[in-house]
């Protein structure tokens, strides 16, 4: 039945086994849902560090707020495009997902507020027309695309990984994305 049974002669050893087991379970859960849980971030493009203008877009960015992670979907909230799924409506310009990040020519998984990194944003085939300098530029901030589901997953599994200012950014971005 896959029930874990703990045994020990000393109660403290039993407690240590249990806490180690719970930590392992939480880590496995985080790994499973890591792609769906989107961490909030606001990125500012460094204009002199634009390396590729089309898909994949490769730019140097400053992390203005939040935490940037590989797998984060990126949008330009102040630029809109025609929504082909809903004719007559417009939606935010979606660039794609961060597929890699580097700091000092070394790959990194995450970057926090105040750090500068180079990111590679890979868009889908439908997003391949998007070009830096034509559809967006260094005047536009890049923002992680949050959803109700991604916020719920953050609350359930990554509550301790986020600081108070990160949760304040989630609240701010909820307004941008009209999330209730």
Q: Report the portion of residues in β strands.
A: 35-45%
CATH class: Mainly Beta
Which spans have pLDDT < 50 for at least 5 consecutive residues?
none
Summed up, the helix count is 3
Number of domains: 1
For the sheet with most strands, the description reads:
6 strands, antiparallel, barrel
Estimate percent helicity: 25-40%
Features:
180 residues, alpha+beta, Elongation Factor Tu (Ef-tu), domain 3, 6-stranded antiparallel barrel, 3 helices, 8 strands, 36% strand, elongated
Plain-language structure description:
With 180 residues, the chain is of the alpha+beta class. The chain contains three helices and eight strands. It has a six-stranded antiparallel beta barrel. The longest helix has 23 residues, at 11-33. The model has no long low-confidence stretch (mean pLDDT 86). The chain has one domain: Translation factors (Elongation Factor Tu (Ef-tu), domain 3), CATH 2.40.30. Strand 4 and strand 5 (106-107) form a beta hairpin.
